[in-house]
Amino acid sequence: MSRAFFIRGAHDGYVAPFNLRKGQPGEVLLDVASVGLCGSDLHYYKDGGIGSAVVKEPFVPGHEFGGYLCEDFGGLSKGALVAVDPNKACGHCEYCEKGYANLCPNVEFIGAPPFNGAMTERIWVPSSQIVPLPENFTPLEAVMLEPLGVAIHAVDLAKPKLLEQVALVGCGPIGLLILQVLKVAGAGEILAVDPLEHRRDMAARLGAARTGSSVNDIRAWTSREGTPLVIEATNSPLGFRDAVLASKIGGRIVLVGIPDGDTYTLPAAEARRRGLKIKFARRMGEVYPRAIELVAGGKVDVTSLVTHQVGLDEAPDTFRNHADNAPGYIKSLIYPNGL
Questions:
Q1: How far apart are CA 152 and CA 150, in angstroms?
Q2: Is the Cβ–Cβ distance between 331 and 306 less than 8 Å?
Q3: For domain 149-280, which architecture applies?
Q4: Quick one: which of 240, 305, 306, 312 has its CA closest to 276?
Q5: What's the confidence (pLDDT) of residue 67?
Q6: pLDDT at 308
Q7: Is there a contact between 174 and 151 (Cβ–Cβ < 8 Å)?
Q8: What SS3 string covers the chain?
Q9: Residue 206's closest CA among 139, 302, 110?
Q10: 335, 311 in Cβ contact below 8 A?
């Protein structure tokens, strides 16, 4: 009998025995090495769901993870560390055929209700979603490839121009990864804001030109004109509004965050009068090779973002601390089989 961390509803998470299902043809069994606590996991915990993905019965979250092969597979030996792409698109719908597997309406996503995730000791995953890793990769690096992929996809959508000034609204894990990818992509001055001091401090360490606590700082730094590109990565219902207020007339906005309560609050005139180009980021495309290269080459620092690493029994407290915005928490990893 395995154990797992379950979410039963809003602010209701606990560790309990878990019956591992039988494997299906084309699946591979992994011992979970480590799993990240993502902002979407936190939404399931705080709100009991995200849009139509509602927690109707206890389920196991966790889609950012790496694991050790329980058998030889695809030229890899038993015990090899691999990452996993959690997105299983159908492969035959209109969107998959156009290359937008991240938008597939028939997706089976590991760690999103009703599909159990990786906050457990063992998990079966489709072999097509196994991502081989360089031999020197650690479980931490394996986990962080998925959120880094989200950041890469966001910057792909943003298309920053060389040395272009960018406003970054939100300096959580995704925002801090976006900051680093922007720098690799050749963006210019990055103006980063977040209400939490320890996140602002991390943004400054990672290369933000200026850091502040709110969008008002961006407006002050730019003489109220805003920046030509804004990327939003918050969990705030006011995130869309703040991105608009940080944007220059005729600017571009990429919205990456998921708002608490699944609702934005936005004064429409501010957006209309700027004639803004707005894109929403949804998960990621085929980005794992680039994510691996960025980590392996030392171009993106994923390690410094991980502030807490805990065992499975500490998962309930870790979720509560993140929900309460406890000081010092940026990214937590959970090790179901022990650190």
A1: 5
A2: yes
A3: 3-Layer(aba) Sandwich (3.40)
A4: 240
A5: 98
A6: 98
A7: yes
A8: CEEEEEEEECCEEEEEEECCCCCCCCEEEEEEEEEECCHHHHHHHHHCEECCEECCCCECCCCEEEEEECCCECCECCCCEEEECCEECCCCCHHHHCCCHHHCCCCEECCCCCCCCCCECEEEEEHHHEEECCCCCCHHHHHHHHHHHHHHHHHHHHCCCCCCCEEEECCCHHHHHHHHHHHHCCCCCEEEECCCHHHHHHHHHCCCCEEECCHHHHHHHCCCCCEEEEEECCCCCCHHHHHHHCEEEEEEEEECCCCHHHCCCCCHHHHHCCCCEEEECCCCCCCHHHHHHHHHCCCCCCHHHEEEEEEHHHHHHHHHHHHCCCCCCCEEEEECCCC
A9: 302
A10: yes
On the CB side of 246, CA atoms within 13 Å amount to 31
At residue 312, what is the residue type? L
Residue with tokens 């492969």: 91
pLDDT at 1: 77
Q: Residue type at 199?
A: R
Q: In which region does residue 247 sit, left (phi positive, over 0), alpha (psi from -120 to 50) or beta (all else)?
A: beta
- Whether residue 173 contacts residue 39, with contact meaning beta carbons closer than 8 Å, is answered with yes
Compute the distance between CA of residue 305 and CA of residue 212 in angstroms, rounded to an integer.
19
Number of other residues whose CB lies within 10 A of the CB of residue 293: 12
Return the structure tokens found at 263: 């609702």
Farthest-apart Cα atoms in the chain, separation: 61
Residues 6+ apart with CB under 8 A from 328: 198, 307
Domain 2-132+302-335 has CATH 3.90.180.10: yes
pLDDT digits (tens, 9 = 90+) for 50-100: 888 889 999 999 999 999 999 999 999 999 999 999 999 999 999 999 999
CA 254/CA 154 separation, integer angstroms? 7
Task: Give pLDDT < 50 ranges for the chain.
Answer: none
Token output for 338: 């022990």
